[in-house]
Amino acid sequence: MLSYPATVALSSRTLNHLAERIRGHRKQRRSRWRRLDPGRQALLALAHLRNGDTYTRLAAGFEIGVATAWRYVQEAIALLSAAADDLDTAMRRIRLLAYAILDGTLIPIDRVADQRPYYSGKHKRHGVNVQVIADAAGRLVWASPALPGSVHDLSAARSHGIIDALTSADVMTFADKGYQGARGSVRTPFKRRRFRPKLSRRQKVVNRANAKIRARGERAIATLKTWKILVKLRCCPRRATAIVQAILALHHVEANRGLPPEMWTP
């Protein structure tokens, strides 16, 4: 079998952050000898999440069994997802924003036995729905737990309590036409209807301004999908939430270069 060196586009701070969590977890459980030390296990998990390396490739590269690679990665994901911000915690920073951008994205998955709930008619593929909140510069602030791909964006946002939270915090939020009817502090473009076949000039101007703002929100989704594991999940869809939350936790560490949470910028 041939091997070759590879890189993970993350800082050493992120590696050290995850390694410290793993080290603390092992100490708490009084774990004895492991095939990989905390630093190597952290690197293994980051290679899986960031580069999308399969368990088979990771096992060969780290000279461990496939089952061991799977177990080490799942352990790291569980530790990270437990540390990820929930919506209430994220709102402490979101309410300080000039405005927020709300959008949904579909994370593709393999077809599963119970495939109907996961088929998105909008995207014509199977996946899970994740709601993303970005700041005015398009930086990723928060990502929601995953729901089946057939769930509409507005229904998903309501299910997670995002609309109520943004409205209660009085945060002006821009969203696309899929969120029409959200009301509260959410602003959506005007939409042509049967009784209104044409938009006025003012409505067209408003729609263009809304589109320019929402375009920045696409950066947050692009940031989320720089983690190659999300290009297409090849695991049980029920594990998608933990993976997204783990990536969100790592993103904040990477973006803020190890600053304490109270000093984080969204």
From TrEMBL:
The protein's required cofactor(s) are namely: a divalent metal cation
The taxonomic lineage of its organism, from the top, reads:
Bacteria, Bacillati, Actinomycetota, Actinomycetes, Micromonosporales
Q: Which terms are listed as keywords in the entry?
A: Metal-binding
- What name goes with this protein? IS5/IS1182 family transposase
Decide whether keyword Metal-binding is in the record: yes
Q: Does the keyword Protein biosynthesis apply?
A: no
Q: Which molecular-function annotations from GO does this UniProt entry contain?
A: metal ion binding
InterPro entries per record? HARBI1_dom, Transposase_HTH_dom
